[in-house]
Write a structure and sequence with these properties.
Elements lengths: L5 E6 L6 H9 L4 E3 L12 H9 L13 H14 L13 H19 L3 E4 L4 H8 L6 E7 L2 H9 L5 H19 L5 E4 H6 L1 H11 L38 H4 L2 H10 L6
Parallel strand pairs: 1-3, 1-4, 2-3, 4-5
Helix pairs in contact: 3-4, 5-7, 6-7
Length: about 270
């Protein structure tokens, strides 16, 4: 292909449906994804990357090294920058190295898959800002937002303190607003995506320069290789259900406090 692929960057706080959106968009025949690219950075730790490398791939391979896709990706990256895919530094502080390594990864994904678009669900506002300023990288940000009470409740079920999660939601949302100020981007609601996925994707895909393909709604019909993300990516049946457990499981007091603490981030 000519030039690097278009990068579809999912911008959202954690637990907002980014893995779902990643899988649905990447189920298009012209779109690929390896999930959150931030895992290919020293900040993630070599142990973390070694762990991801040793875990099963979504395609069914027992490890990433046993997966033909990851082996081909490693070969392409190594030919481009002289190091393997698991040694990349996609968060390098050096602008030249940052550009070189990120373009090497994107170009390798496009070469191996033949796709024109790549989805990234790193959910880092700082990384998005650097990518937007990186020469040669075309970024299409998709700002995914969810009712903060749902986000906080989802995080609390995973052991995160609810007050801290509410403040975190506000901080992350305001970060994205700052980064995307004056930047063309697409806004999508998790609630709309979960309740009417065909309509939500039908509106989004043309903005990405693509037509909706009906088979996108069932990501289990496609082969994916996300390195990390929500455990739903290993589901054998694609179930898209709106999670509104917070409505009955959160106390009125917590609902009120979360609403107050996240008011500055209200859309």
């Amino acid at each position: 292909m000519i030039g690097p692929p278009t990068l579809v960057y999912v911008a959202s706080p954690s637990n907002s449906g980014s893995t779902l959106l990643d899988l649905l968009v990447a189920s298009h025949s012209a779109v690929a994804s390896v999930g959150p690219l931030k895992v290919f950075a020293p900040a993630g730790g070599s142990d973390r990357r070694a762990q991801l490398r040793a875990t099963p791939c979504m395609c069914g391979a027992p490890t990433k090294d046993d997966c033909a896709f990851w082996r081909d990706l490693d070969h392409e990256v190594r030919a481009s920058v002289g190091c393997g895919v698991w040694e990349l530094d996609l968060a390098s502080r050096d602008p030249g190295a940052f550009r070189e390594h990120n373009l090497a990864m994107l170009n390798a994904i496009a070469t191996v898959t033949g796709c024109t678009h790549v989805v990234e669900s790193s959910k880092s506002a700082a990384r998005l800002a650097r990518l937007l300023a990186c020469p040669g990288v075309e970024v299409r940000p998709v700002r995914l937002h969810r009712d903060p009470r749902g986000v906080v409740h989802s995080r609390s079920r995973r052991g995160h303190p609810w007050l801290r999660s509410a403040l975190r939601y506000t901080h992350r949302t305001l970060e994205y607003r700052q980064v995307l100020r004056g930047v063309a981007h697409y806004r999508m609601s998790y609630e709309h995506l979960a309740q009417a996925p065909a309509d939500a994707l039908g509106d989004l895909m043309p903005w990405l320069g693509l037509d909706l393909e009906p088979t996108q709604l069932d990501w289990t019909r496609h082969q994916h290789h996300l390195a990390a993300g929500n455990a739903m990516r290993f589901a054998r049946r694609a179930r898209i259900e709106l999670d509104r457990a917070w409505e009955s499981e959160l106390s009125s007091f917590r609902k009120a406090v979360i609403t107050l603490l996240t008011y500055p981030a209200r859309d």
